């Protein structure tokens, strides 16, 4: 369970003190167990109208950007297409380019893999999006280490955990060379890439798209500190958020960067109610919708690596050991030894008296702000002013209307206290986030 409005102390900002500006983004609900597809209000994840609705709601709320995740291959669950993937995964660039035509100021952030793409292509695609959108493009740089995804590509195979970050680091270096390479030869030779050519486009409005990195662990933090403008993370408590915030800002400073130019965005959900009790009840109902009995068993099979359909979701955890030479869900990577994960699960279930479904709900619920609109506004502002985050990427549980209530009820309260914009001051995403234009290209552009 993530942030709870009653658990975080409120931090007052005295009159005359500087109040940090809150940044907000909208994550399009994707193929995961946080999205509730059984709700009658849920609509398509593929039809363009769904993307338009969420993006325009975010822009109406003066959000910084719209965030779109991507998967390069549908996952398989015990030899079948995973039931949360059957709706499909649209292409990121196509969706964002189309959204550029129906939005005016909203940033457009897309997740593109550095393991199974080529830097010249990706650099051109993001430069194109930045031109089409008038300077609103952002790239969430992700890596992949599973061979299942690699089977979709000519090279196949996979990269070890450390190797995928080395490739990603060089990938970004080459992409930057293309963004900076108009009217000049582009030449690079390194461990991963040998490239020689010319940039396909003149400088885009932002020169470089805004660069995001999603990473909570050491190598991911180092990569973000060296290459990213913003980091997408997941930390539920104020204390954990402040520790993570201080750590990544320090890592950026150690690399000679201004820490203010690395923004920290935890992902979170917001559940509202007319009273605190109403909000708490709404949150409980949503969590049970997100983790149905069948979903609970399916998620447990991902860790155990074996079929568990005979177990009662409302009963105790399986007494069998996990299987180590296979994965129940291909396309998913476990970040620890299954034996260690299972031991942790059993200890938690025993300590709290949790059934399978109850445990899965506790372990897989996205960090949440739960309360009345005023309480949620207070809580979000407290996190920002306490240096636990620079903003939040909100992940609604409903596609595509899950952001509407937050925009209508919480955003005005944040605006009233002067912590959130009432109008866009700039036109580019870098301006929204207070990020500088890359100096190297800015100088070259002036000379040209």
From TrEMBL:
Residues 44-385 form the Luciferase-like domain. The keyword Chaperone does not apply. The keyword NAD does not apply. FMN binds at residues 111, 161, 165. CDD domains: Nitrilotriacetate_monoxgenase (cd01095). InterPro entries: Diverse_substr_monoxygenases, Luciferase-like_dom, Luciferase-like_sf, NTA_MOA. It holds the Pfam family Bac_luciferase. One of its GO terms (molecular function) is monooxygenase activity. Keywords: Flavoprotein, FMN, Monooxygenase, Oxidoreductase. Belongs to the NtaA/SnaA/DszA monooxygenase family. This is Fmnh2-utilizing oxygenase.
């Amino acid at each position: 369970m993530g942030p709870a409005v009653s658990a975080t102390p409120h931090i007052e900002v005295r009159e005359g003190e500087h109040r940090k500006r809150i940044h907000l983004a909208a994550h399009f609900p994707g193929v995961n167990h946080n999205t509730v597809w059984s709700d009658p209000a849920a609509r398509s994840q593929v039809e363009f109208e769904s993307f338009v609705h969420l993006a325009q709601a975010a822009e109406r709320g003066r959000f910084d950007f719209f965030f779109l995740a991507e998967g390069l291959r549908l996952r398989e669950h015990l030899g079948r297409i995973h039931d949360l993937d059957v709706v499909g995964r649209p292409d990121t660039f196509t969706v964002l380019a189309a959204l550029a035509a129906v939005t005016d100021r909203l940033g457009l952030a897309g997740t593109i893999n550095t393991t199974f793409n080529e830097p010249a292509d990706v650099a051109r695609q993001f430069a194109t999006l930045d031109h089409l959108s008038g300077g609103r493009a952002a790239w969430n740089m992700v890596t992949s280490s599973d061979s299942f995804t690699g089977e979709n590509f000519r090279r196949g195979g996979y990269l070890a955990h450390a190797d995928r970050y080395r490739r990603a680091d060089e990938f970004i270096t080459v992409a930057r060379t293309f963004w900076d390479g108009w009217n000049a030869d582009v030449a690079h030779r390194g461990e991963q890439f040998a490239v020689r050519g010319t940039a396909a486009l003149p400088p885009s409005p932002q020169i470089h798209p805004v660069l995001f990195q999603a990473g909570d662990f050491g190598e991911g933090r180092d990569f973000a500190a060296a290459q990213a403008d913003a980091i997408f993370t997941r930390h539920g408590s104020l204390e954990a958020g402040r520790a993570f915030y201080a750590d990544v800002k320090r890592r950026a400073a150690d690399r000679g960067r201004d820490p203010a130019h690395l923004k920290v965005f935890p992902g979170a959900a917001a559940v509202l109610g007319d009273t605190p009790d109403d909000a708490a009840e709404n949150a409980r109902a949503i969590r049970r919708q997100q983790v149905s009995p069948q979903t609970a068993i399916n998620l447990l099979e991902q860790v155990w690596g074996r079929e568990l359909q005979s177990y009662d979701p409302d009963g105790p955890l399986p007494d069998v050991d996990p299987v180590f030479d296979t994965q129940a869900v291909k396309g998913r990577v476990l970040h620890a030894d299954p034996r260690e994960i299972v031991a942790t699960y059993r200890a938690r279930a025993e300590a709290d008296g949790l059934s399978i479904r109850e445990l899965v709900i506790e372990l897989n619920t996205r960090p949440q702000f739960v309360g009345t609109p005023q309480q949620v506004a207070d809580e979000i502002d407290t996190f920002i002013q306490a240096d636990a985050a620079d903003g939040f990427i909100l992940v609604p549980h409903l596609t595509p209307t899950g952001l509407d209530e937050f925009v209508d009820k919480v955003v005005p309260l944040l605006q009233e206290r002067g912590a959130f914009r009432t109008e866009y001051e700039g036109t580019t995403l870098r301006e929204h986030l207070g990020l500088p234009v890359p100096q190297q290209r800015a100088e070259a552009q002036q000379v040209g």
